[in-house]
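Sample entry copied in:
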Amino acid sequence: MRQIFLDTETTGLDPNQGHRVIEIAAVEMNNRQLTTNHYHTYLNPGRNIDPAAQEVHGISLDFLQDKPIFKDIATEFLNFIKDSEIIIHNAPFDVGFLNMELGKISFDKLEMQSVSIFDSLKLAKEIRPGQRNNLDALCRSYNIDNTSRSFHGALLDAQLLGDVYIAMTRGQEAFSIDFAQSPHNINLEDVNQTSLVVTRPNNNELQEHNDYISSLKTPDS
């Protein structure tokens, strides 16, 4: 199974206010093994970056001036993620921004470009209710080294998310059997409706059992 851990950085918090994607990273995992295959690019947003956003990711507009625009990389990006489950931490944020970018160039939404989209933040909240579940908190909880994360960066964050996801779902491999594809399918309704067959021992078997029990007794018992 191919899964993609995806993260973005943006000029601000709301695509409906004209904010744009400035960095995209996607990291590949095959059969629960992270690979060295990944997609990563910076983008020229064609607009200013909010100071608060720049404090988070440290990406300046000067740095982005010679970078491509989203339209130029869209096909390459979509080819990388197709036929995969996409895993995103706080998926509505990144999906909202990417769908805005795709809509500007008349491409289908991200949901139509992948097998499915999974929100790892929702899973974390189910596992750790009432606790902080941002990426830093999860790294601390699962002893994942994030000391190089001085700023939010899409590629590093996607890689860390892969490690966090594996830690959060460890042990689920045993439950991943697809019984629908098994040649030994068991219909539980049939089992419940089947009469229980009780086989009782005959006289010889009872006598052998009693003789064995007697042989175990000591003189003081």
Remarks:
- The two ends are 62 Å apart (CA to CA).
- Residues 186-216 form one domain.
